[in-house]
Amino acid sequence: MLKKFRKPMMRSALLCSCVFLAAAGVLQPAGTAFAAMSADSQAKLAGYWSPILYQDVGGKPEGDIPTTVNFDGDWSGTNNWENIGQYGRGLKALYPNTYWSLVESETHYFIGYNFFYATHDPQTSFGDHENDMEGIMLVVRKPGVKRKDGTTVTQPSGELELALMPRHAKLGMFAPTNTAIQYKPGMSSVYYDGTFTTEANTTGTHIRVYSAQNDAPLTDSEGDFGHALKAYNSAGAEGDTGFIFHWGGSGSSAINMNASGTANWDNYMSDFVESKRMNFGLIPMESSIWTLRNNMTLNLWASYGTFKGDTGRADAANAPWGWSFEGYRDLGGGTMLIDPAAFVDALFDDLGPFSKVYLTNAYK
Predict the structure, then answer these.
(1) 307: confidence class by pLDDT, cuts 50, 70, 90
(2) Is 8 among the domain residues?
(3) Are the C-beta atoms of 49 and 104 separated by less than 8 Å?
(4) What is d(CA 96, CA 285) in angstroms, rounded to the nearest whole number?
(5) Tens digits of per-residue pLDDT, 126-156?
(6) 225 in a structural domain
């Protein structure tokens, strides 16, 4: 698939010539040495672009809380289904959390937000499995980089151009409402499932994302079951029951759903009332579960990138480095995390200046 923009070879990935930089649309002085982003800079960007999660909730709400893989204090994947019930309106602390990742190329940030749930439990037993991880990837054009129309991004944290959201091994694709910066599908099988909206506030610019509840039928016409993600369209919560999770800003901490003296399960559950938002935590994936990816001595993995689970369909959930999608298997498992620039480049045309040279990538 021919792109309008192609980069010449570089002698070094760290030292770029003024010719290359001009071609890439990057406003950077000639001879500048690029350095990987610090952990603090990555965390600030992850917070700035963090999603507002509209989480639908079913009959067993504890199974609809995005949390940590080791929420129960161990790294076993085969007792999560059994243990999560102790955390619903219980005495044990349960914190909503999101794992984030960040990869940086010369022109873009690729920021992932991944939600882990203890169960995937739709209304019928068919499709049940222990553990569930869903996520989104945001493609953000960096400040100082030219858009495809030749203008330059001036926002200090960049400009959001694309959101990809896995939905039961399929890939949802969502564009900004501004058609001038939308990418063009590059394959006949690529199409937009819709557009996304964002909210700008004191903590950043946040995409609004809907997550389906467990307790919904597999036959739902929209595929909204088992934590499937899509851009939130203000339709409200199914059954009028849901939580809204967001990042509360620097220094904030995740709410304890079972904090003593509270009734958080009741007080915050609503038909997505905006005044009833709860803080989730942001956990860097690079320094948490990614470090365990090759540790097969844990009872966490059935194989590389696949969680071990023995309730319902065995070993049915994958971590982001094990994801592949219907219609795009030839792009390789885990490519959306490991080589996101190549992944986006394969799917879309008319990207404008777009580099596949990485400055920060812990996953490749």
Answers:
(1) very high
(2) no
(3) no
(4) 15
(5) 679 999 999 999 999 999 999 999 999 999 9
(6) yes
**98-108 pLDDT, tens per residue?**
999 999 999 99
Q: How many domains does the chain have?
A: 1
Residue 329 lies in a domain: yes
Measured CA to CA in angstroms, residue 23 lies from 4, 264, 313, 353 at distances of: 11, 53, 50, 8
305: containing domain: 37-360
Cβ atoms 96, 65 nearer than 8 A? yes
Q: Is residue 238 part of a domain?
A: yes
Q: How far apart are the first and last CA of the chain?
A: 23
Q: Report the run of H or E that residue 344 belongs to, with start and end.
A: helix 340-347
**212-to-56, 96, 121, 163, 229 alpha-carbon distances in Å:** 5, 16, 11, 17, 7
Both tokens of 364, joined, read: 């490749």
| Rg value, the chain, Cα | 20
Q: At 142, phi and psi to the nearest 5?
A: -75, 155
Q: Decide: 74 and 83 in contact? Cβ < 8 Å.
A: no
